[in-house]
TrEMBL record, chain A:
It is found in: Mitochondrion inner membrane. Keywords: Acetylation, Fatty acid metabolism, Lipid metabolism, Lyase, Membrane, Methylation, Mitochondrion, Mitochondrion inner membrane, Multifunctional enzyme, NAD, Oxidoreductase, Phosphoprotein, Transferase, Transit peptide. Residues 350-527 form the 3-hydroxyacyl-CoA dehydrogenase NAD binding domain. The record marks E137, E159 as: Important for long-chain enoyl-CoA hydratase activity. This is Trifunctional enzyme subunit alpha, mitochondrial. In the N-terminal section; belongs to the enoyl-CoA hydratase/isomerase family. In the central section; belongs to the 3-hydroxyacyl-CoA dehydrogenase family. It comes from the Eukaryota. Pathway: Lipid metabolism; fatty acid beta-oxidation.
UniProtKB/TrEMBL annotation, chain B:
Keywords: Acetylation, Acyltransferase, Endoplasmic reticulum, Fatty acid metabolism, Lipid metabolism, Membrane, Mitochondrion, Mitochondrion inner membrane, Mitochondrion outer membrane, Transferase, Transit peptide. One of its GO terms (molecular function) is acetyl-CoA C-acyltransferase activity. GO terms for biological process: fatty acid beta-oxidation. This is Trifunctional enzyme subunit beta, mitochondrial. Pathway: Lipid metabolism; fatty acid beta-oxidation. One of its GO terms (cellular component) is mitochondrial fatty acid beta-oxidation multienzyme complex. It comes from Bubo bubo. Its EC number is 2.3.1.155, 2.3.1.16.
């Protein structure tokens, strides 16, 4: 009878839904009609992005819900595993040509969600998986939110990371829902909020625990259970046994009360604005626009707020910053795929040689993904330090409550620390992270090859030693590959994989698979001195040294490089990398590339090393580093060294802007040369590598996107200008010249 | 809160969190049989037959009632004395004593020994204590079985005790550390400096774990999720709980609970029967709010086992010894299996996994079993296990079996009530299950009984008789 009734209702009242069902954007279901006069309509999304088509169909369905007397409430849920709605369709926004068009899109979204918000029939959002951007805006327009307490369930407004703002009422609803400070935090950081945290913030009303296996798979049953619970609440809301009003805690009541006072609000705006200005250096327009939009709504009322939101959304969508960030987002997605396919043998046991900072870091990001990992060192002391690093890294997650102590222990059981080669006969991959010395690398390669099985991949973590040179002593060069991690490994997202002419496709597939498993964004480049990332950094650092020699002090260099958008100042960067390492690399690259890598005097570095100014690790470099001291001071011991190598400054190329451009043009020119020489296989990987590995300003989207937006011709002009003063270090490469000569040529279409 | 009112006497003002504790340690399963009659015998060549001569328990009481002022070894002592009285076994014959307990009283960490000495057993009889959550006394019994089978002993007393009226509440770790360091401080100055470091948070007490250590989830919460995973409704759970109470009441009134021995509590009246059996009505049970998954869960105080004080003991012997001493064994302990699985999502599914294993091991089928005694931690947990046993999908995807084992028929299942109604003093439940099975087999004229229980940590087991 139930089925009959459902069929009848569907045919009679929901002709439209049957149609949409064919198009697979929605499935509309009517649960149990008998025994309850409250009919709950379930609207189940079959896609996970908000597109134009989806919104128009969705609006139609909502209209039918309101028109149909039998329906008393509705539940919105998704049938896409792993996501509720992961955001708006980015293609849809990118396809717009003008800011007006985008603003129009935003207004349509606003209207649709306002309709839900004002619906006399309660609408419940049942959230499992990512609820991001437009998805979150949809959820908060509903009257009630129920989320599964799973790791995959995250709520966030990542628009700011794409240079946008929440454009479908999010900027207006969030402050009312979670209070002004929390709303700013959510929107300005774009960070992921787990379900339990969201519940505490008041972003969701109920949590549903994920279920284990029953007579269906855990995933399927959990979604079904979520739907059942949501239906219960939808019924309760409709017959008023459940109230959508949530009781706010004392703190939130106080905050709300304070925020109602215009003066206090102004102070909050001011504080947040100052903080944003300081952090973005004015390079990112989106955060300020978010503040402006929230302000408009709270100070000038509903209409002004929504208008500001759509207008600002439109304006932001056409900025070059947004395009750059969007490019990075797409690049990231591209670099999260394994273009070499699935490796023949999955890596299950990994061995890491060298328990230093890098080795232990690699071990940490491996064990927590379930890889059995052997960490081998030659000395007990070094091994202890490395194991402690892994423990500390995981334990900090326990302290942040993203891991339980039990999970930490069980993850650590994947790690074996040892001094010998025991168990290497079962290793599927060995990553060596020993000292950067070709002789040591050769020694361990030979030792390892004597004990590993035939299928085992040998990967070298080196920042500059050519892989083919390392592979020269290998009996099986097709199994040798470079995996260049960045320090600190657990936080830096990039992995640069280097293939030689002899490296086999399967070896590459295996290395990429491991990198992706470790959660890395992977670029794959050809072998050569400095590969891609180190090579780009070389000329820039040489220029930094020259600028220092010309009398610009380290603080000033840091200030002008961060003003350009680098997250770390250029002088600080050298301290972080380590002056000895920088010297080593600079010498190697200088030998390989000659004059082009000149500029500053390498002798300056050598003297620093001699004096023990090795950078942060030694407590002294360009700066003095002391535990617990936040404002580090310039190392006065450097004065003498800098004086000794002093060069006359050339006033025609020494304005702040010129110094910035000298650093950046050398970087970009070298990147272009890597593409020209085939080290890089695509500009996308070049951009991703530069931004995620070297901190190239994200607002510029990477060297290649920067050439596109700055103009190849303009860039070549700058290079020529500096070439006239300093010579061949600034000679633009052929590829850049080609692009400069043909204005229609772009690296990114 | 309402739950507590229903199930805990008024004068009991236990902290509410203790209720969760009850939820945190419940599951057990085992199987047993009386002497072979018609069906095949399971005697194994070369292995001694091991028999249950007798078993007793003191009445199971809701915690905070008549046993509230006693210590665990007092309860255990009463059970052991009861066993001595009922069997008149000469104390010097007992070779060994094994006892189970879950929440340990630190003063009597080897509670087996303290209780045995106090109960008048010989001081020459060694005793040790085992712990394995809710199947601790099953572990005690199988330890005894192992000792007899290995030829170490002929006569073993096994049992279990739990006193939930009193649990060890500790100082915080910081405070303990300060106090221990204080012991070593020599000068007044050192002592004062240590004392000056004490902060208000040092005084926060540490309650016994109310949750599974590995997952931080309380047992009740896990049971609610399990019930949801198998789509067991609130109504089904309440109906099952009502059945348990109704059957227990019938058994109690009909004098079927033969294992109960009276206990004269010092300063109080003699306790003669379990006091948690309260057949209620569906309406009343329906009024209770969910106790763990709030506000929409299905596990309530009425469909969960409650915090209980109690102790039990059984006398195990090799068959030849029992016969030589002139005893008529009540049952043969034929086989047992311990299994364990995922402590998060399958914490309470032990019986499902263990039942087919022990049957296969013994060469029996479900149809051969005349009496099923399953530990009832939660009505939802029992019903989920029954559904799991009846699901081909579950058998294929999680148990690596071709097909389901099938659910036991309810007319043979926990027909004299269960932990939901009789109570569940964690470590004492195992012996109760075994004795109920033995008595039930005798009354029904059955041959094989199956006892199953699950325990915290996801370890259940099965014991199977003749």
């Amino acid at each position: 009878l139930d089925d009959l009734l459902q069929g009848f209702i569907l045919e009679g009242f929901f002709s439209h839904c049957i149609m949409t069902q064919d198009e697979l954007n929605f499935i509309v279901k009517l649960p149990c009609l008998l025994g309850s006069w409250f009919m709950v309509l379930i609207c189940c999304f079959q896609v996970n992005t908000l597109s134009k088509q989806l919104s128009s169909e969705f609006t139609d369905i909502m209209n039918e819900i309101w028109a149909n007397e039998a329906v008393k409430s509705a539940v919105l849920i998704s049938s896409k595993p792993g996501s509720f709605i992961a955001g708006a369709d980015l293609d849809m926004i990118e396809a717009c040509k003008t800011s007006q068009e985008v603003a129009q899109l935003s207004q349509e979204g606003q209207k649709m969600l306002e309709k839900i918000e004002q619906s006399p029939k309660p609408v419940v959002a049942a959230i499992s998986g990512s609820c991001l951007g437009g998805g979150l805006e949809l959820a908060i327009a509903c009257h009630y939110r129920i989320a599964t307490k799973e790791k995959k369930t995250v709520l966030a407004t990542p628009e700011v990371l794409l240079g946008l703002l929440p454009g479908a009422g999010g900027t207006q609803r969030l402050p009312k829902m979670v209070g002004l400070p929390a709303a700013f935090d959510i929107m300005l950081t774009g960070r992921n909020i787990r379900a339990d945290r969201a519940k505490k913030m008041g972003l969701v009303d109920q949590l549903v625990d994920p279920l284990g296996p029953g007579v269906k798979s855990p995933e399927a049953r959990t979604i079904e259970y979520l739907e059942e619970v949501a239906i219960d609440f939808a019924r309760g809301l409709a017959n008023r046994t459940v109230s959508a009003k949530r009781s706010k805690g004392l703190m939130q009541k106080l905050t709300d009360y304070a925020m109602a006072v215009p003066f206090v609000r102004q102070q909050v705006y001011k504080t947040v604005e100052n903080k944003v200005r300081k952090q973005t250096k004015g390079l990112y327009p989106a955060p300020l626009k978010i503040i402006e939009t929230v302000k408009a709504g709270l100070d000038q009322g509903h209409d002004a707020g929504y208008l500001a939101e759509s207008q600002n959304f439109g304006q932001l969508a056409v900025t070059k910053e947004s395009k750059a960030l969007l490019g990075l987002y797409r690049g990231q997605v591209y670099c999260k795929k394994n273009k070499f396919g699935t490796p023949q043998q999955e890596v299950k046991t990994l061995a890491v040689l060298g328990a230093g900072l890098m080795g232990a870091g690699i071990a940490q990001v491996s064990v927590d993904k379930g890889l059995k990992t052997i960490l081998k060192d030659t000395a007990q002391q070094g091994l202890d330090r490395g194991q402690q690093q892994v423990f500390k890294g995981l334990n900090s997650k326990v302290k942040k409550k993203s891991l339980t102590s039990f999970e930490r222990d069980s993850i650590l059981s994947n790690l074996t620390g040892q001094l010998d080669y025991k168990g290497f006969e079962k290793a599927d991959m060995v990553i060596e992270a020993v000292f950067e010395d070709i002789n040591i690398k050769h020694k361990v390669l030979k030792e390892v090859e004597a004990v590993i099985p035939a299928h085992c991949v040998f990967a070298s973590n080196t920042s500059a030693l050519p892989i083919s040179q390392i592979a020269a002593v290998s009996k099986r060069p097709e199994k040798v590959i470079g995996m260049h991690y960045f320090s600190p490994v657990d936080r830096m997202q990039l992995l640069e994989i280097i293939t030689t002419d002899k490296t086999s496709q399967d070896t590459a597939a295996s290395a990429v698979a491991v990198g992706l498993k470790q959660g890395k964004i992977v670029i794959v480049v050809k072998d050569g001195p400095g590969f891609y990332t180190t090579r780009c950094l070389g000329p820039m650092l040489a220029e930094v040294v020259r600028v220092l020699q010309e009398g610009t002090d380290p603080k000033k260099i840091d200030a002008i490089s961060t003003a350009f958008g680098f997250p770390v100042g250029a002088a600080t960067l050298i301290d972080e990398v380590g002056v000895d390492v920088a010297t080593h690399v600079a010498e190697d690259l200088g030998k390989a590339f000659g004059e082009r890598f000149g500029g500053g005097s390498i002798e300056l570095f050598k003297l620093m090393v001699e004096k023990g100014f090795l950078g942060r690790k030694a407590g002294k470099g360009f700066y003095i580093y002391q535990e617990g001291v936040k404002n580090r001071s310039v190392n006065s011991g450097m004065d003498e060294i800098l004086a000794r190598f002093k060069l006359p400054a050339k006033p025609e190329v020494c304005t702040d802007e010129d110094i910035q451009m000298r650093l950046v043009t050398r970087f970009v020119n070298e990147a272009a040369m890597c593409l020209q020489e085939g080290i890089l296989s695509s500009p996308v990987e070049g951009d991703i590598g530069a931004v995620f590995g070297l901190g190239f300003p994200p607002c510029l989207g990477g060297p290649f996107r920067y050439v596109d937006s700055y103009g190849a011709k303009q860039l070549v002009d700058k290079l020529r200008k500096y070439e006239a003063v300093y010579g061949s270090q600034f000679t633009p490469c052929q590829l850049l010249l080609d692009y400069a000569n043909n204005p229609s040529k772009k690296f990114h279409q | 809160p309402t739950l507590l009112l229903t199930y805990v006497p008024k004068e009991n003002n236990f902290p509410r969190s203790f209720f969760k504790l009850a939820g945190s340690l419940v599951n057990i399963t085992s199987l047993l049989a009386v002497q072979p009659k018609s069906k095949k015998t399971l005697t194994k060549s070369g292995v001694k037959n091991i028999v249950v001569v007798e078993g007793v328990r003191i009445p199971f009481l809701q915690s905070g009632t008549s046993y509230a002022d006693l210590m665990p070894h007092d309860l255990a002592r009463a059970a052991l004395q009861g066993l001595l009285n009922r069997t008149s076994v000469p104390r010097e014959v007992v070779d060994y004593i094994v006892y189970g307990t879950v929440i340990q009283e630190v003063k009597t960490s080897n509670v087996a020994r303290e209780a045995a000495l106090g109960a008048g057993f010989s001081d020459k009889t060694p005793a040790h204590t085992v712990t394995m959550a809710c199947i601790s006394s099953n572990q005690a019994m199988t330890t005894g079985v192992g000792m007899i089978a290995a030829g170490q002993c002929d006569v073993v007393v096994a049992g279990g005790v739990e006193l939930m009226s009193d649990v060890p509440i500790r100082h915080s770790r910081k405070m303990r550390k300060t106090m221990l360091t204080l012991n070593r401080a020599k000068t007044l100055g050192q002592k004062l400096s240590l004392l000056s470091k004490i902060r208000p948070d040092y005084f926060a007490p540490e309650l016994p774990a109310v949750a599974e250590f590995s997952t931080s989830e309380t047992m009740g919460h896990s049971a609610d999720r399990l019930a949801a995973a198998f789509a067991v409704s609130r109504l089904e759970q309440d109906e099952y709980a009502l059945r348990s109470h109704t059957l227990a009441k019938k058994a109690q009134d009909g004098g079927l609970l033969l294992d109960v021995v009276p206990f004269k509590v010092p300063g109080k009246d003699t306790v003669t029967k379990d006091n948690g059996i309260r057949p209620s009505s569906m309406e009343q049970m329906g009024k209770l709010k969910p106790a763990f998954v709030k506000p929409y869960g299905t596990v309530t105080a009425a469909n969960s086992s409650f915090l209980t004080d109690g102790a039990s003991a059984v006398l195990l012997m090799s068959e030849e010894k029992a016969l030589a001493m002139g005893y008529k064994p009540k049952a043969y302990l034929r086989d047992f299996v311990y299994v364990s699985q995922d402590p998060k999502d399958q914490l309470l599914l032990g019986p499902t996994y263990a039942t087919p294993k022990v049957l296969e091991k013994a060469g029996l089928t479900m149809a051969d079993i005349d009496v099923f005694e399953f530990h009832e931690a939660f009505a939802g947990q029992i019903l989920a296990n029954l559904k799991a046993m009846d699901s081909d999908w579950f058998a294929q995807n999680y148990m690596g079996r071709k097909s389901k084992v099938g659910a036991p028929p309810l007319e043979k299942f926990n027909t004299w009530g269960g932990s939901l109604s009789l109570g569940h003093p964690f470590a004492a439940t195992g012996c109760r299950l075994v004795m109920t099975t033995a008595h039930s087999l005798k009354k029904e004229g059955g041959q094989y009984g199956l006892v199953a229980a699950c325990a915290a940590g996801g370890l259940p087991k099965c014991v199977l008789g003749p």
